[in-house]
């Protein structure tokens, strides 16, 4: 636990939350400033700042919980769709430095945007540049 982390304090029960799921690795609760009814945050119990900091078993458990919570959140608020995503690092907009997945139920004509809206100005990349980037990503994996 990180003493000054809001989400660690929520997992410890020191800050109240509307809890929707918990197991040995994962905790999930409603976002206090929801973008939609049913906006749910899914987090590891242990304090890790970024997705790539998660041990494999925690990452597996986190995705398994998201797999179940997406249809549950949609059903609870009668939403036909949802956006699911992580802000991963300060420059991406991550404000709470404890890994958390957002599940945001979506409705027809709700005025929101697709996840494509998160990027900055779109880069103009030719096919050779795309191939180089793909090669570098493939090579950078453990
Ligand atoms: P981020 O920008 O880091 O991806 O998102 C952090 C999210 O945590 C925000 O959507 C914010 O509303 C939510 N949040 C921040 N503090 C609290 C809190 O004390 N309780 C709950 N339930 N959500 C919080
Ligand atoms: Zn934490």
UniProtKB/TrEMBL annotation:
Source superkingdom: Archaea
Catalytic residues in the record: 100 (tele-amp-histidine intermediate)
Entry's Gene Ontology BP terms: nucleotide metabolic process
A Pfam family it matches: HIT
Annotated signal sequence range: none
InterPro entries in the cross-refs: Histidine_triad_HIT, HIT-like, HIT-like_sf
Domain HIT: 6-113
Name of protein: HIT family protein
Motif stretch (Histidine triad motif): 98-102
Gene Ontology molecular function: any one: catalytic activity
Family annotation (SUPFAM superfamilies): HIT-like
